[in-house]
What does this fold into?
Amino acid sequence: MVIHEYWGLNDWVKEQAAKLADRGYATLAIDLYREKLPLPRQKPMKSWAPSEDRAARDLHAAVEFLNRLSNVKKDRIGSIGWCMGGGYSLKWRCRSPPWRSP
It folds into this structure.
C-alpha cells in the first residue's frame, strides 16, 4: 500500500507507486482524501486529515482488496507513506496483525 502525504494522491505519489510496481511489487495507492484535495499553498490543517477511524477502515479495505488478488502474497502485504501517510503506515503496522487473512 502506498499512502500519500498531506497534499494527497498527487502525481509525485503516483510516480513513487509506479516505481515500486516497476520493481515487481503489487502496489495500491490509496486516496484517504477521497478526491477532496487541499488547496495549493494552503497551510496544513488538521481538518484535512481523515478521521483515525475512517483512515483505519480505508486501510483495512485496501488490505482486504489486496488479499483477494491472486498475484499478492497474503503474508507479505506492507505499506509505505510520506509525512502524514508515514504516520498512518506506522499506526497501521503497529495494530494487531492486520496483514493476515481471518
